[in-house]
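A.,

Following up on our hallway conversation. C-alpha cells first:
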C-alpha cells in the first residue's frame, strides 16, 4: 500500500527477523503520516444526511435525530477515526440556494481534493427528476475537480417502503442513478472535448500568424492534450435506514477503503484468528462501532447470516447506549470493557477492549478451556496492533519499541511463548 514503506537492513532491534529472534535479514515496516481525507456529504434538504452522521459519529439514537434542524450552508467537522485517520467531513446543506452556490461560486472550493462523495437520496422524494438533475450537476463538478474520488450513493429512508417491495424499489432506483451518472460523465467528457478543440483552434491560429511573420517554420507544430477517454466513476450504492443495521453496513464500507494500512491489519488479524482457533474475528472502531476489518475461518464462511457484521455493530452500539443510560456517563465515553456470551454447545463469543481506539469480537466453538485461552492470547496480541492508535513517533517506536511489535511483523515467531504456537514455552493448545 502507499501508506507503507518497507526497508531491508541488518538484524537488530529495528525489525523482526522472519520468525526468529536475532540476526539475519530484517524487514522493517514503517507507517507514514496519514493525510486528512476530505469527505463530502451531500443530498437534498431533509434527506437524512445530518441524522446518519449524528448516529454514526456522535452516538445519537435514531429517535434523537428528530430534534436536529436543517444544515445551514456547510457544517465542517473533523472526525478522528482510529488513531491515524481524520475525516474532514463536509456536511453540505441541501437547500436549493446552497446547492446553486456550491455549483457556481464555491465550485472549485467545494469539489477540489475530494476523497469521497456520499450522496443521499430520499426514497420518498416527490420531485425525483429535480433530485436527479442536481445529482448530475454534482457528479459533473466532482469529475471536473476530483476525478479519482470514490462515490457512495445511499438510497435512504427505505424503512418507509413496504418490506415486500424494498428490493424491487431499490433495484429500480439503482438503475436510474447509474444511468444519470453515465450522463454526467458524458457531459464532462463533452466539455473536455469542446475545450480541447477550442485550444487546438487557438493554437492553429497562433501558428498561422507566427508563420506569416516568419517567427517559426511551417513544419513546427504543437499539440494539446487529448480529452480523457477513461472517465469512470468508482461508485457503490446502498439501501439505508436509521432504524436498522443497514446504516452501519453502508458506512463501514465507506470507511473501510479509507483506513490506512488496511492490508497490515487484515494480515495481523488473520494470524491471530488462526492462532486462537477462532471462527470469526471482528475489529470495531471504539466510538462508532463500525467494522474496521474482519477475518473468517472456513467454518465461519458457512454462517448463513450475511448481514451479521452490521447487526453486531448495531447491537453493540445499542448496548453501549444502555450502559450509558444506567451509569449516567456520556455516550462518547467508554461504557464497557468486556462482554461475554456463551450459547451452550453452539458457540462462544466475547467482545473486549483491544487497543485505545478499537474493540475486538471473537467468535469460536464452545469449550471453557478454549474460551479462556483465546482471551489470554488476545490480551497478549495487543502490542502487535498498537499501530492502530496512530503512527509511531521516532525510529524506536516505528521499529516496535523494544519488543512492543509493529505493523507487518509476525508476533507468533518474534515473541516465543506469547501464543500456543510459539514453541515449548507456549500456552498449549486450548483442547490439550
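Then the amino acids I'd put at each of the 432 positions:
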Amino acid at each position: 500500500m502507499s501508506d507503507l514503506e518497507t526497508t531491508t537492513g541488518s538484524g537488530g532491534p529495528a525489525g523482526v527477523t522472519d520468525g526468529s529472534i536475532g540476526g539475519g535479514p530484517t524487514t522493517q515496516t514503517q507507517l507514514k503520516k496519514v493525510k486528512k481525507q476530505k469527505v463530502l456529504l451531500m443530498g437534498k434538504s431533509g434527506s437524512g444526511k445530518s441524522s446518519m452522521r449524528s448516529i454514526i459519529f456522535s452516538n445519537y439514537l435514531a429517535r434523537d435525530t428528530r430534534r436536529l434542524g436543517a444544515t445551514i450552508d456547510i457544517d465542517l467537522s473533523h472526525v478522528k477515526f482510529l488513531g491515524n485517520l481524520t475525516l474532514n467531513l463536509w456536511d453540505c446543506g441541501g437547500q436549493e440556494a446552497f446547492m446553486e452556490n456550491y455549483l457556481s461560486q464555491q465550485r472549485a472550493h467545494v469539489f477540489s481534493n475530494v476523497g469521497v462523495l456520499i450522496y443521499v437520496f430520499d426514497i420518498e422524494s416527490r420531485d425525483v427528476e429535480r433530485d436527479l438533475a442536481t445529482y448530475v450537476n454534482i457528479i459533473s463538478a466532482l469529475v471536473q475537480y476530483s476525478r479519482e474520488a470514490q462515490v457512495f450513493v445511499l438510497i435512504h429512508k427505505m424503512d418507509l417502503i413496504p418490506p415486500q417491495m424494498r428490493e424491487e424499489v431499490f433495484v429500480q432506483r439503482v438503475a436510474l442513478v447509474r444511468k444519470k451518472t453515465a450522463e454526467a460523465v458524458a457531459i464532462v467528457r463533452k466539455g473536455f472535448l469542446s475545450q480541447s478543440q477550442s485550444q487546438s483552434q487557438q493554437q492553429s491560429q497562433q501558428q498561422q500568424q507566427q508563420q506569416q511573420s516568419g517567427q517559426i517554420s511551417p513544419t513546427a507544430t504543437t499539440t494539446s492534450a487529448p480529452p480523457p477517454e477513461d472517465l469512470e466513476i468508482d461508485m457503490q450504492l446502498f439501501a439505508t435506514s436509521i432504524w436498522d443495521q443497514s446504516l452501519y453496513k453502508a458506512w463501514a464500507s465507506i470507511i473501510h477503503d479509507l483506513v490506512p494500512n488496511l492490508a497490515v491489519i487484515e494480515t495481523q488479524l488473520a494470524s491471530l484468528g488462526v492462532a486462537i482457533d477462532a471462527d470469526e474475528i471482528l475489529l470495531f472502531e471504539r466510538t462508532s462501532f463500525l467494522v474496521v476489518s474482519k477475518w473468517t475461518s472456513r467454518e465461519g464462511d458457512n454462517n448463513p447470516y450475511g448481514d451479521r457484521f452490521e447487526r453486531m455493530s448495531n447491537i453493540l452500539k445499542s448496548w453501549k447506549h444502555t450502559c450509558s443510560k444506567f451509569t449516567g456517563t456520556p455516550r462518547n465515553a467508554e461504557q464497557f470493557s468486556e462482554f461475554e456470551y456463551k450459547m451452550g454447545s453452539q458457540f462462544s463469543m466475547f467482545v473486549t477492549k483491544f487497543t485505545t481506539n478499537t474493540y475486538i469480537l471473537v467468535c469460536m466453538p464452545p469449550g471453557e478451556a478454549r474460551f479462556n485461552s483465546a482471551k489470554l492470547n488476545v490480551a497478549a496480541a495487543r502490542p502487535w496492533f498498537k499501530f492502530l492508535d496512530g503512527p509511531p513517533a521516532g525510529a524506536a517506536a516505528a521499529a516496535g519499541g523494544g519488543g512492543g511489535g509493529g505493523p507487518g511483523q509476525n508476533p507468533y515467531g518474534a515473541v516465543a511463548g506469547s501464543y500456543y504456537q510459539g514453541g515449548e514455552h507456549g500456552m498449549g493448545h486450548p483442547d490439550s
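The domain at 37-254 is CATH 3.40.50.300 (Rossmann fold). Curious whether your intuition agrees with the design.

B.
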